[in-house]
Each structure stands twice: as C-alpha cells, then as structure tokens.
Amino acid sequence: MIWARLKGYFDTNLAGLTQPTRSDWIFALRTVSAGLIALLVAYALKLDHPQWAMMTVFIVAQPVAGMVLAKGFYRLLGTLVGGVAAICITTAFGSGPWVLVTALAVWIGICTFVSSLLRNPEAYGAALAGYTAMIIGLPAFGQPHLVVDLAVARCAEIVLGIVCAGLTSRLILPKLASDAIISRLKRCIIDLATYAGGAFSGGDPATLSGLHRKLVADTQTLGEMRAYARLEAPSFAPRAHPVRRTIGQLLSALSAARALHSHAAPKNAALIPVRSELHLLVGELATKPGALDDTAPWVARLDAISARARRMPDAPADQQDDKLGTITRLTIAADFAEALKQVLRGLDALRAPVTRRPGPASQQPALVVHRDYPGAARNAVRAALATLLVAAFWLTTKWSEAAGTVILVAVVSSLFAARPDPVQVSWGFFKGTLLALPFAFLVGQIALPALPGFGWFVLFVVPILVPTALGMANPRYVGVATAFAINFLAFLSPHQAMTYDPGPFFAGSASVLVGILLAIGVFLVVLPADPWLAANRIVRAMREDLARLCLHERVPRRSAFESLAYDRINQLMPLVQNSGRKGEAVLGGGVVAVTVGLEILRLRATSQNHAIAPETALSIANFLRGLARELLFRAPGDPQTATIAVARHYAAAIAQKNATGDMLQIAASLRIIAAAMEDFPDFFARDRS
C-alpha cells in the first residue's frame, strides 16, 4: 500500500513536468554520467565515503556550465574553510563536549550571518563553510586526532565530484551562460515590445500585469547569469558591466511604458504621431521573425522617434489641449525610445564585444549596496540556537543517531535561512528526502546485496536518477528533485561491498528526517521570518537612494543609478512576488522609482546648466530638498506634503509663461515625478517599522 502511494506520488509529479527538451535530456544524461564517473574514481582511490563524490555532482549540477563552475568553486572554497575551522575548533575544544558543540554552533551562526549578507553563489559557499565544520567536527567527537584525516577525506571526495561535474558540463555538449544571457535578453526584448504594444493600445490590464511580473523576474535571472558567465569564461568579464547596464535600461523602458499606459495621452496632433510610430515599431519587433538578427534598422527608427518626441510643440493643436501634459508624455515616449535603443545596443555589445580603453575615473557619490543586517542577525541567532539545542539533546540522551539529526538541523537552518519562505523550501527538501527513502532501501538493502558489482549498480540506479535529473532541469520541481537525488545517494551509501543491514539504515534515515522536521519547527517558532519586514527595508533603501540623488553634491552617471536600482529590485522580487496585489504594488513602485530617479538626475543636470537662470536653479534645489524630506519622513497613510503640489504648481507656472527648451523639460520632469508618487503613494512613504 505504501509502495503504491509513493509510486503514485512519484508518477504524478513526473506527469506534471513539461515535456523535457533536448537540453533537459542532455543535462540529465550528463549529470548521471558525471556522477557514475565520480563514484568509479572514488572506488579506485578507495575513499572512505565514495557517495560524497557522486552526491557532490548532483549538488553542483546546473543546466548552464557557468552555474556549475560557480557553485563548484564556492562549494570547494566553503569546504576548505569549513575543514580548517573544524580542525581549529576540534583541536582547541575537543576535550570538552559542551564547549565543542557550543563553538561549532557559534561558527555556524557566524557563517549564516555572512551568508545572509551575500548573494548566490557566494552565499552558498559561506553557509557551506558553517555546516561543513559540523559535518567534519562531530564525527571526530572524542577522537580529535582523527579530524585532520576526516577533513582531508571530505575535501578529496568533494573535489573529485566538482572536477567530474565541471569537466562534463564544459566539455560534453555544453550550454554556456554567455549564450544563455544573449538568448534570455532577446526574449526580454520581445516581451518588452509585447508589453509596450499592449500599453500603447490600451491592452488588457491583467495581461499587462503578468508581462510586467515576467519581465522583472527575467531581469533577476539575467543578473544571476552575468555572475556565472564571468566564472565560465574570463573573456566575458569585460561584457559583465554592459549586461548590468542593459538590465537597468530594460527597467527604464519598462517603467516608461507603464507610465504611458497609466496616464493615457490626450488626443492631440503632437503626441499621436509619436505614439503611433512607437506602437508600430514595437508591434513589428514583437512579431517579425528574426527581428533581432540585425538591430541597426530598429536603432535608426528609435533615434528618429526620440528626436521627434524631444522637439517641443510650438503651440497646442486646439485650446483644450494640455500643452504641459503633452510635453510630459512626449518626454516619457522619448525616454522609452532611448532606453529601448540602449537595450538593443547592449544586445549587440554581447554578441560582438568591442574592447574599449578605460576612460578617466570620475568620482561618484556613494550608491550604497543594501545589506539586510537585522535579517542576517536573526538568521544567525536562529541557526546557532537550533544547532545548540539539538546538540544539547544529543549530549544529554547520548542517542548515537542524534548526531545525524544535529548535522541536518545545522544544514537546513543555515542553508535555507535567507530564503523568503524558508519553511516552504525546507518542506520541499523534506518531501524529496522522504520520497528517496523507499527507493534507497530497495536498491541498497534488497537489490545490491543480492546482485553486487558496479554494473548492477548502474542498472538499478540509472532508471531512478535520470528522471530525477530531468526534474532538476525543471524550475518547478528542482528543489524536491535535488533533495531526492542527494538523499537517495546518502541513504544508499554505495560501497563496493553492499550488505543487508536494515537497522542502521532506518536509524540513520530517521535521524535525517527528524533533523529536517526540527529545522522546519525552528523556522516556524524561533524568530520567524517576515518577508515584508525585509521588503520594507529594501524599499526604504530605495527611497534613501532617491533622497541621496536629491541632496548629494556629486551627481552619479545614469548607468550607475540604473544598475543600483536593478540591484534593489533584484533583492526585492523574491520577497514579494507571491504576495498578490500587495506584492505587485511594491514591485510596480520599485520600477517606477527608476523613472523618479532618472528625472531627479535630469533636474540636477539641468540646474547645473549655465543657461538656466540662478533663481530657477535655486527653485529646483529647494524642490529637491522638499522631495528628500517627503521620501525620508512621510509615513504610509499620512497626507502628502506640499512637495507634490509644489511640483505641479511650478510646472504649470512654467507652461503658462510659454517657456521653451530647458524650462519646459524642467516642467515635464516635475510632472513625471508628481504623477509617479501619486500612483504609488505608500511606496514613496517611510514605513513605521
């Protein structure tokens, strides 16, 4: 009965997978082959725990070669640091069990703190350094003289797995991160054109909202691939900055398109032609086969549209037209055309990089990378406390199998601590582990003792691991499938001579499952995470960025601000993307903040123009100071200060004077800032937390 239910669960999940692609099959067969090679070499070298070599292959396995190299590199680095820490802690405190486990728990807390402040794959390496010390140090309990041998053996097994995974991913039909970036960026451009086409024609709001979320998510993936590509090929390093800049331009174009959709243009002779040309261009770009093979025609058309949009209309077409509103929308349309043009140029730069000599360094104002120190401290305390409490239970009861429970609590509470929903991730890990248990029992305790040998091992294991690797290639099932693969091999514990010994098998398996459940309980009870607190801290950092743009003496480059804004949104997205309308409002506000920042930069640049009257420059400076106060001190629900009203009044006064050129551009920027802050009032207000 149990077997039938497990088989049904497994079949149901496999049936839910999308049809595997050729790339998925290559990944699956390559991963399983690399794992078998690693295990065979571990047998030949007579390593004590050969399963670690094969497990490492599945741990670092990724569809893209650069991702494998990145995860493998930081896994190796984390293992080495954890091994050295285990040797030092065990040597210093090995004689006192309570002091030893306390020192290991503190080390895990420190590594979890560092991991929570970093990003993947660096964060993975830091977390690994913490629990590797526990994995090595705990088996040496009472025998500190063995810790060096254990550390060397663990490092050798992991190095072997990393080498096998890295070589096969790079040499056997590789999928390169650099190629994946270009492919993903092309899809982003097509999606952006589709979104803009709907925005310019009054498309369905639900469809546009879905496309908006997808585009923001894809920018996050592009950013991750950028880091992997740099490790995959040093030659890609000069192109890493263009990727970051192009992501910022994508967000700028998305924000401009959203603004044109939210504030539909009035029907006047000045705006309709520009809007129609943009609508026609993005429609062709989205539907024409091979549209991105040659970007030169699109760039030329966007240049012409941008130039036309920036030509201020001499007079309104009729008395009812809002000239300032028309100019504001023309400015946004020109910004969209310019940003899309830069995205296309970024695509060309990736496909045909040009070596450029670095120009003179210019001093930029501090654009601070956000570090969530309160969240990192919470994660550190939780991981250290959970590890220490379970270790205390182990020392008090002297239950031998509880050592495995201590290790799993340390692993899960550290590795998943910084996830937006650690409970959900840990539960997926538990399901994959539980599902692996009967398969490991049948293969390791029934089949292989009766039919020993590497050939039989391959025959029994490959039909299980290939579908598992296909699941790992599917983003929907990657967590459960990876947990299944790792724990299937851990429970199986393949050796050259397999024996039937169910007692230790079930005792060890039970300790693993209990450890994961205890870690889930820790996530639920001990300092439970609230993703909205972390999201509010990032939103506050974004408002502080805008205030810094208003007040800082030095003005940053547009690309520097766009890169920073992308970084903020990249951190914000996993925290709020599954939060319904509230999350969409926060993400929408984040993207709109890009527009606000760019208009602040435009005002700063205009105010430094010598052709602008001193009183105008002073008025701009006063407005920016008031805007900074609004961003830093107004709380959600509080009435907006006079800053927004001042912006609209000042813009209208400029328009009434029949001003032209720079003055009308100032008025348009003021209107854009006011409209953006009115669209998302709570985003641009200080949270009370």
From TrEMBL:
<keyword id="KW-1003">Cell membrane</keyword>
<feature type="transmembrane region" description="Helical">
    <location>
        <begin position="430"/>
        <end position="448"/>
    </location>
</feature>
<feature type="transmembrane region" description="Helical">
    <location>
        <begin position="477"/>
        <end position="493"/>
    </location>
</feature>
<feature type="transmembrane region" description="Helical">
    <location>
        <begin position="454"/>
        <end position="470"/>
    </location>
</feature>
<dbReference type="InterPro" id="IPR006726">
    <property type="entry name" value="PHBA_efflux_AaeB/fusaric-R"/>
</dbReference>
<keyword id="KW-0812">Transmembrane</keyword>
<keyword id="KW-0472">Membrane</keyword>
<keyword id="KW-1133">Transmembrane helix</keyword>
<feature type="transmembrane region" description="Helical">
    <location>
        <begin position="402"/>
        <end position="418"/>
    </location>
</feature>
<feature type="transmembrane region" description="Helical">
    <location>
        <begin position="380"/>
        <end position="396"/>
    </location>
</feature>
<feature type="transmembrane region" description="Helical">
    <location>
        <begin position="27"/>
        <end position="45"/>
    </location>
</feature>
<protein>
    <submittedName>
        <fullName>FUSC family protein</fullName>
    </submittedName>
</protein>
<dbReference type="Pfam" id="PF04632">
    <property type="entry name" value="FUSC"/>
</dbReference>
<feature type="transmembrane region" description="Helical">
    <location>
        <begin position="76"/>
        <end position="93"/>
    </location>
</feature>
<feature type="transmembrane region" description="Helical">
    <location>
        <begin position="99"/>
        <end position="118"/>
    </location>
</feature>
<feature type="transmembrane region" description="Helical">
    <location>
        <begin position="158"/>
        <end position="177"/>
    </location>
</feature>
<feature type="transmembrane region" description="Helical">
    <location>
        <begin position="125"/>
        <end position="146"/>
    </location>
</feature>
<feature type="transmembrane region" description="Helical">
    <location>
        <begin position="505"/>
        <end position="527"/>
    </location>
</feature>
<keyword id="KW-0813">Transport</keyword>
